[in-house]
Amino acid sequence: MAQLTDDCFAFSGPLMPLADMERLIGERVAPVAETETVPLNAARGRVLAADVVAPVSLPPFDNSAVDGYAVRHADLDPKGETRLAVEGRLTAGKAAPDPIALGRAVRIFTGAPMPDGADTVFMQEDVQTEGADVVVPPGLKRGSNRRLAGEDVKIGSVVLRAGRRLAAQDVALAAAVGLTSLAVRRRIRVALFSTGDEIVEPGRPLPAAALYDANRYLLAGMLERLGAEVTDLGILKDDPAQLAPALAKAAHGHDLVLTSGGVSTGEADHVRDAVEQVGRLVFWRIAIKPGRPVAMGVIPAAGSSAAFVGLPGNPVAVFVTFARVVRPLFLRLAGAAPEPLTPLPVRFSFSYRKKQGRREYVRVALRPAADGTVEAFKHPQDGAGVITSLTETDGLAELSEDATTVEPGSTVGFLSYAALMG
C-alpha cells in the first residue's frame, strides 16, 4: 500500500494554492514499491519501474529509406549525369552476397540492407533506366536516402526512463528493440464511493428531491483512464455512524480512498468529521473554482496507510478537482514522472471577472475565427451542477490566481478534456 505520513500534505494556510499542493505531493508522497513484469500487450498505460536499455541498435544495419538504386558516391560525376550498370537486386530481409563493384548500381527497395561499399541511394523516380543501365542525375549528396545503423537507437542506450507512463508508441519502441515484457509498478488501488441522502443509483426508482448518481461513473472512468484498479463501494448515506467505519474499512487494501459529496460546511456534510475519527484530515480547501471544498487526508490501515481525497458533490466541480488535485496525487502514488499540464493559447471571445487569489477554470468551446485564430466561447451556464456544460464544450480556460479581469481578444491558456483526463 501507499506509504504516507500523517503530515504528508500539511499546510497552515486557509486556502492552499494549486502550486503548493503539487509541490507537497511531489515532496512528501512516496510511490507504491511493488513491481511486476508484464508482457508487451499488457504494458500500455502502466508505469515503468526501471529504465529500459536497448539490447540492439535500431536499425541494426544500414538500409535504404526508399525504393531506388544504391551506388558508390565516389563513382558519380559531380557535374553531369552518370551511367551505371545495374547488377543485383535487394529486397527487405535479404542481404547482398557481394560488395558493390566499382561503377555499378544495385536495385534496392525500402528497408533492404545497403550492400557493402554503397553509401547513397537514388529514388527510382529521379533516374532513367536504359536497358541494363541506370542514368542518375548530378547533385545528390553523399549518404542521401540511407538509414544508418543505430541512427534511431544505439545498443546499450536508455530508450525509456523509469517513471514513464507507457503509451502505444512506447510499447512499439520496446518491441522494435526485441523486448517481450517490461517491469512496471503495480496498479494503484482506489476505493470509490459517493455520499448523500439525495443520491440514487441509476435504474432505481427516483424519489422526489433525489438525483441519480453521476459522480461515481465520472470518477470511475477517469480513474480507469489513468490505469487504476477501482473498487466501487456504491453510495453511502449522510450518516456519521456509517461513514467512519466505511472509510476505515475502505482504507484496507487500497492506496487511495476517493469520495464525492459531504466535504462542505453544511450540517449534513459529515465526511470531514468521519475522516478525523479514523485518520487525519490535513487540509480541506483549495484555491480553485469550481471545487474549493476538497478534503485531503491520511487513513491508517494495518501498518500502512491510504490517502484520502473527498471531492465536492457537484459534477463539474468533481471533474475539475479530479483533474487538478487527484490526478497529480494519483500519478505520484503510481510512481509516474510528473506530467504537468501545458495550457495552449487561445483567444477569449467574451468578458470575464473573477476573484484574485484562486485559479479559475471556465468551460469553453473552441471555434475558428475569420482570421484563422482559435477562439474560446464560454458555455452559457456557469453552474457547477450543469453536466451538459462538460459535454457541450471542448475543455477549460485556465485563469491564473493573479487575474481579475479578462477581456475579449485576450490570450488565455486552454486545457482540453483529453489532456485533463490523462
Walkthrough of the structure:
Strands 7-4-6-5-9-8 form a six-stranded mixed sheet, with no helix packed on it. It has a six-stranded mixed sheet with strand order 16-13-17-21-20-18, sandwiched between helices. It has a five-stranded mixed β-barrel with strand order 22-25-24-26-28. It is elongated and about 90 Å long. It folds into three domains: 18-34 and 186-333, MoaB/Mog-like domain (Molybdenum Cofactor Biosythetic Enzyme, Chain A); 63-147, Molybdopterin biosynthesis moeA protein, domain 3, CATH 2.170.190.11; 344-421, Beta-clip, CATH 2.40.340. Helices cover 19% and strands 31% of the residues. The chain is α/β, with parallel strands linked by helices. Strand 24 (359-368) and strand 25 form a beta hairpin. It is built from eight helices and 28 strands.
CATH architecture of the largest domain: 3-Layer(aba) Sandwich
Determine the CATH topology of the largest domain: Molybdenum Cofactor Biosythetic Enzyme, Chain A
Our count of domains comes out at: 3
Within CATH, the superfamily of the largest domain carries the name MoaB/Mog-like domain
Distance between the termini: 23 Å
CATH class membership of the largest domain:
Alpha Beta
Strand content: 25-35%
Instruction: Describe the main β-sheet briefly.
Output: 6 strands, mixed
Assign the structural class, choosing from mainly alpha, mainly beta, alpha/beta, alpha+beta, or little secondary structure: alpha/beta
Fraction of residues in helix: 10-25%
Helical segment tally?
Answer: 8
Low-pLDDT parts are none
Question: Which outline best applies?
Answer: elongated
Strand order of the largest sheet: 7-4-6-5-9-8
> Average pLDDT, to the nearest integer?
92
In angstroms, what is the radius of gyration? 30 Å
Q: How many E strands?
A: 28
